[in-house]
Amino acid sequence: MIDNKERLQKMMASCGVASRRKCEEIIASGRVKVNGVVVKELGTQVSKKDRIEVDGKLLQKEELVYFVLYKPTGYLTAVSDKLGRRLVMDLLPKEITRKYRVFPVGRLDYDTSGVLLITNDGDLSYRLTRSAKEIEKVYQVRVDGILQQEAVNQLIKGILLDGKMTKRAKVDVISLDKKNNSSLINLTITEGRNRQVRRMCEAIGYQVKKLKRISFGGVTLDGLATGEVRALKPHEIKVLYSL
């Protein structure tokens, strides 16, 4: 009988410890033991027969769960913070956080609201956040000023950030409010660079006043009020895995 082995960080992620990238950090910091021996080497091959401990706790596979949170502004997208700032994890019902080791998928800026996926499925998190994947993310953006067509064209074609052009985007102009000198657009991107939407708009001369992510890989805020969370529907999970 073949004893199938896989990389330690992948097994940890599939057991709901954290995202695969975070699991690599946990391994490198010496917090993991395999059969009683501390392992720091990434890519170490393990099997289900091996005894794996993380922070002294035996690794056990748990039920994979998937949620979407309507993140408010003023919350940090993290599971912990040394500065004591409010975390998105604080918004989750205790019946979720007590039973499952869930974490946010990717990041949503402190001052940005909207769709934030929450799961304990490290493999899916890895698939959705690695740079090679082109996952559509739709942002509703209100900027100061009346957005000109030339600026719209620039956003679509790409903006030079940190010496590299952003990938082509989609822009839907929702409204041009001449009375209040502001514009509302939906901007669809397939990357996840740091503060990308704000920086794209600033690069063409428009300051972002309000930013909300309204869709991530097809998952929307439908049925949710700010700060609320719901379980993903089976078809939503299936779509995310197909991306």
Describe this structure in words.
- The chain has 243 residues and is α+β, with helices and mostly antiparallel strands.
- The protein has 3 domains: 6-58, RNA-binding S4 domain (Structural Genomics Hypothetical 15.5 Kd Protein In mrcA-pckA Intergenic Region, Chain A), CATH 3.10.290.10; 66-131 and 219-242, Pseudouridine synthase I, catalytic domain, N-terminal subdomain (Alpha-Beta Plaits); 137-216, Alpha-Beta Plaits (2-Layer Sandwich), CATH 3.30.70.
- The chain is 22% helix and 29% strand.
- It has 7 helices and 17 strands.
- The protein has helices spanning 8-14, 20-28, 94-97, 122-129, 149-157, 196-203, 234-242; strands spanning 6-7, 32-34, 37-38, 45-46, 52-54, 57-58, 66-71, 103-104, 113-119, 137-144, 160-161, 164-165, 170-177, 182-189, 208-216, 219-220, 229-231.
- Strands 7, 8, 9, 10, 13, 14, 15, 16 and 17 form a 9-stranded mixed beta sheet that branches.
- Helix 1 crosses helix 2.
- The longest helix has 9 residues, at 20-28.
- It is elongated and about 65 Å long.
